[in-house]
Fold this sequence. Notes:
382 residues, alpha/beta, Aspartate Aminotransferase, domain 1, Aspartate Aminotransferase, domain 2, 2 domains, 7-stranded mixed sheet, 3-stranded antiparallel sheet, 12 strands, globular, binds pyridoxal-5'-phosphate
Amino acid sequence: MISDRLLGVEGSKSVGLASVLMKLKKEGKDIIALNVGEPDLATPDVVKEATYKAMLENHTRYSLVEGIPELRERIATRFQKQTGRKIDPSQVLVSNGSKQTLYNLFQTLLNPGDEVIIPRPYWVSFPEAVKLAGGIPVFIDAPDLQLPVDGIKAAVTKKTKLIIVNSPNNPSGVVYKKEDMIAIANLAVEKNIHIVSDEAYDALVYDDQEKFSFASLSDEVFNHVIFVQSFSKTFMMTGFRIGYSIASTEITKNLNKLQSHLTGNNCTFAQWGAVAAIDHEEEIVPPMVALMKKRRDLCLELSKGLFEVETPGGAFYLFPKVTQYFDRFKDSAEMATYILEKTGVAGLGGSAFGMEGHLRFAFTASESDLREAFRRMREVLL
Ligand SMILES: Cc1ncc(COP(=O)(O)O)c(C=O)c1O
């Protein structure tokens, strides 16, 4: 009954756990959910008000497949402000979350058997979305969690079509080094491969680090990069489902062709909410980033003596190494299940992200919940 295509992919482990937790909560279990990859903060009022106003003004019908012009113009202006690179709004295509943007991209660019290089650990949907398009994920391990430049260089074949670069990274929170990004950019130009730069967490960079963008390099590099960005994490708008790509007009035209048969436009009034989000970015984003940094620092402090953890330079994830506990647990999934059962603290095993020996916790919870979560974990692990 079910197609071979779908039988060949796995369901999203992070989404799967969310429904298990909902059930446990309903049964009255005291759960601290550090598994969720979304801010726990409410969508800003200005965004909600603009969305509601748009509905009242009857922006409730089909709109252009590629997105409303007002939003695409703002995205183009914002991109130029952030990267120095002028783009035309016709290079922007708005989709139902950057998850759909990525799906669209692989469907649009991959022929069966084309290879896509994915550094490991990776975000759960990359390999599955590649496989759904008939592509072959080629995993390159990043034991130090940095961009594995040499491994990527060695893995390039005639079939390599794309390299996925996700910085700040989910699950590790690592911000890749600028020199490594430049090395991959040069490789892409030399071998005529495209980079898919997943920038879902681009606003969440801590400690005054430089925000590097491939767009700041040469025109040649820029033409070999497809930028994938999202309103979800930056503006606390996960449920609005607004992501977008910035690519050449040729790629964008073809993405548009695909999307016209798939979802058509993204929810019209949600796009008006996104317009307001960009208009009020200065009020919305810096306080959120400051709060997440405070939580990150707290988690690092609370991890002392419990977990060995790399300081995440961005995003909102802690990806501690937990192999010192493997005399008690056979792997990270078993350890995550044990922690959930004994303490109600939900995290994910590193194997969900292709890297055994780690756990992922999202610090998208209040300070008191984070303190309580670590207190409970200490109690059962030490
Ligand atoms: C690295 C990465 N890319 C893309 C997404 C998709 O986000 P959205 O579809 O909400 O834009 C996520 C969500 O967790 C993510 O972590």
